[in-house]
Amino acid sequence: IVRRSTRAIDLLEVNGKPFVTAGGIGIGAHAALAVPWIKALHPLARMATESLGGAVYRLAAGANVMLRPGLAERVRLTWRVPGEAADQSMEVRAHGVFVANQRTMGGGISLPVPADNADGALDVCVVHDVARVRLLVALTRLLRGSAVASNVFSAWRAVRVTIETDRKSAFFGCGDLVAEGTKFEVRVVPNALRVLV
User: What is the pLDDT of residues 69-94, one digit of tens each?
Assistant: First the structure.
């Protein structure tokens, strides 16, 4: 702070609303948004979740994977790869889609992406429709920083991505609800935020 040394990092936007680190729909949103809901239930619930620190996000993720009905949904993705002129698209059944500007999220979970928050690109990570136990094992491996099979997670770089769902979904960003709906247009805004280093 005394040196006032700063650097510029990229910002992400979903439907025109900014977020900085990571966000998405599906299991990530369910886990991230469950934590403030639990805290709001009762002062004792708030104390219990705060005493767990970052571990509360890991517990919420595990509970969502094992207990939430209708976990997977059909998702349509359209994206533009950096340096390319044409869009690419795919339709897939997925437990969730993450859009990241950095690798780590709440609870120390690391996405299997090489995210760099100052490169003018974002990372898209699809969590494929696999058995719940297999997904839980994959999440445990991510917590340890281990490699995960590509048929569980697939990821790529983009400058923008449109995520479309059949049912109304919540999109979280930096742990908060940022948007709701069936269509989410996410783009990177290069060098939009200056931070102290």
Answer: 777 899 999 999 999 999 999 999 99
**Encoded tokens for 26:** 């599906």
SS3 assignment for the chain: CCCCCEEEEEEEEECCEEECCEEEEEHHHHHHHHHHHHHHHCHHHHHHHHHHCCHHHHHHHHHHHHHCCCCCEEEEEEEECCCCCCCEEEEEEEEEEEEECCCECHHHCECCCCCCCCCCCEEEEEEECCCHHHHHHHHHHHHHCCCCCCCCEEEEEECEEEEEEEEEEEEEECCEEEEEEEEEEEEEEEEEEEEEC
Sign of CA dihedral 103, 174, 125, 58: positive
Radius of gyration of the chain (CA): 17
Q: How far apart, in whole angstroms, are the C-alpha atoms of residue 145 and residue 164? A: 30
Query: For residues 132 and 125, what is the distance between their CA atoms, to the nearest angstrom?
Result: 18
For the entire predicted model, the pTM comes to 0.85
Would you say residue 175 has pLDDT above 70?
A: yes
Look-up: residue for tokens 């207990």? 67
Question: Any idea which residue has 């900014």 for tokens?
Answer: 18
Q: Which of 98, 43, 100 is nearest to 75 (CA)?
A: 98
Classify residue 90 as exposed, middle or buried by CB count within 10 Å of its CB (0-12, 13-18, 19+). Answer: exposed
